[in-house]
């Protein structure tokens, strides 16, 4: 039984390495900006995509407080601060820890 689990773990690692290689190759084929202005614009665009995904994840994650706790341990403070602002602005995000939009759920804090 332990041997099968170890084999499954190795297969998962191999698959993960292959996926990483594919993503890197795809990104390299698409190319990256060459000058400072293009690089900054590209970075800001990609950062905005990531921020949007983080906010969207709070809308669908079954335990938003738990997700915030995970972010707190893994995401740099400037990103957390921005996420807090997004929570404050988006009233559809409940941080009650239960289902979103449930009766009595706590709204996002007001950061104004």
Give structural notes.
The chain has 112 residues and is mostly helical. It is built from four helices and no strands. The protein has helices spanning 2-30, 36-60, 64-74, 77-89. The chain is flat, with a radius of gyration of 19 Å. The termini are far apart.
Rounded Rg: 19 Å
Q: Percent of residues in helical segments?
A: 55-70%
Written as H for each helix and E for each strand, in order along the chain, the element string is HHHH
Per DSSP, what share of the residues sits in E-state strands of 2 or more residues? under 5%
Distance between the termini: 56 Å
Which parts are unreliable, with pLDDT below 50 for 5 consecutive residues or more?
Answer: 97-112
Rough outline? flat
Features:
112 residues; mainly alpha; 70% helix
């Amino acid at each position: 039984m332990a041997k099968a689990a170890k084999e499954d773990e190795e297969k998962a690692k191999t698959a993960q390495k292959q996926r990483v290689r594919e993503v890197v190759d795809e990104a390299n084929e698409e190319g990256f900006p060459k000058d400072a202005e293009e690089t900054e614009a590209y970075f800001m665009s990609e950062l905005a995509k990531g921020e949007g995904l983080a906010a969207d994840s709070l809308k669908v994650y079954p335990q938003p407080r738990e997700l915030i706790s995970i972010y707190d341990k893994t995401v740099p403070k400037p990103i957390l601060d921005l996420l807090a602002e997004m929570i404050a602005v988006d009233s559809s995000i409940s941080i009650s820890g239960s289902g979103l939009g449930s009766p009595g759920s706590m709204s996002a804090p007001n950061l104004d």
